[in-house]
Design brief:
The protein is built from 5 helices and 4 strands, in the order E-E-E-E-H-H-H-H-H. The chain is of the alpha+beta class and 128 residues long. The protein has a domain of 34 residues.
């Protein structure tokens, strides 16, 4: 059996005028019992609980990787290719991004106003 210490705090928040809307609280720490390995955790908490928790964490990890790729202009097909064979607990290498495809992806997801500005910028740079 292993002890796991978890710490959390609530940071102070202020509104636009600088007025505190949430005071800082903590940090608080708690200690819970956990397993030394997956087999012990399954014994303590049950197969379904361990699997469910692992899947929930895996989803968050994949979503983070997907968002990072989207911000770099990665296409859905490139994201699938990069993450489709990802392994839980194994770090992913950075996405190699084609700058033209990245710009096109940004253009497609932009509002009409932003698209018009992007086109104007391209025209002005092409004229130079």
């Amino acid at each position: 059996m292993k002890k796991l210490t978890v710490q959390a705090n609530v940071p102070e928040k202020k509104d636009a005028a600088g007025k505190i809307t949430q005071i800082a609280v903590g940090p608080y720490s708690i200690t819970v019992e956990t397993g030394d390995n997956a087999a012990e955790m399954i014994k303590l908490f049950g197969d379904e609980a361990v699997k469910s928790n692992a899947d929930a964490n895996w989803v968050v990890t994949l979503q983070s990787n997907m968002r990072a790729g989207m911000k770099k202009g990665e296409t859905m097909a490139a994201t699938q290719a990069r993450l489709g064979t990802a392994k839980m607990g194994v770090a992913q290498t950075g996405a190699k991004v084609d700058p033209v495809q990245a710009y096109l992806a940004m253009f497609q997801s932009a509002t009409p106003e932003v698209q018009a500005k992007m086109l104007a910028d391209l025209k002005s740079k092409a004229a130079k």
